[in-house]
Amino acid sequence: MFTPNVQDLSIKEIRAIIAAIRVGHGDDFSDFNLGVLSRRVAIAMNRLGVRQTEVFCQMLQGGDLLFYKRLLAEITPPTTELLRDPSFWLHLREDVLPSLNSKNEKLKILQAAYDTGEELYSLLIVLEELKLRADVELTSVYLSEDTLTQIRNCKLPSRRQEVDKANFARFEASVPYEQYISSVADTVQFRRELLADVHFLRLAPVFNLPADPKYHLILCRNQFLYFNPQLGIRNMQNLFDRLRGGGILVLGAKECLDSYQNGSTFTVLNREESIYRKRI
Length: 280
Known about the structure:
alpha/beta, seven-stranded mixed beta sheet, globular
């Protein structure tokens, strides 16, 4: 959540911080959307209690891993809802996954957007609804070790339950909300056992994904909004290379594939939901 009284960093300040991260930790944020990044880092500096850019850069250059992990957790985009955009998840359940399902091999799915866990939980709900969980090899990416710990803890904000329940109803699940979410006092938790066998992959700002496996389905919703055009094009090529012929790529509803490649390598399956199939 943005803090209204925190002033964004200047371009000079955010570039200095990006350089310090690169020197101290090897991650390269130089092609992130600088406006978004300067806002998130400014908020992180406020929360971490280090408000002077020069001091902040010195701490990053010094290689303090714990401090850097805390920064990454602060700048990881939070997911605001479970089953956000229910029409997409309904379409995934009714059309996309059934079109990919094969009795000959396990489906390989990559959840390739940084978030706080809700995208992964939503995907697991869909797989459970289709009784496909045992037939899927699922990989989910993360940027921050602290965020990964949060994802594995399966805790959800209690204040958001009404929104999550409304999305769940619009998704038209075959079982009650409580089948997936338990609520005791102020603790709301997703079913932890559903994360069994999920492979977690630390993905840097440049999507240098392993050569194997090739995926049948890649979900990267609402991620390219954080990249500048150069990084968007580069990361789109990386996703394309890791997708099988005939495989499906999903972007966010406000993201358009045409911005990152010429469209000749994909067929549009659903423009409203930004769903594309890689041509064979």
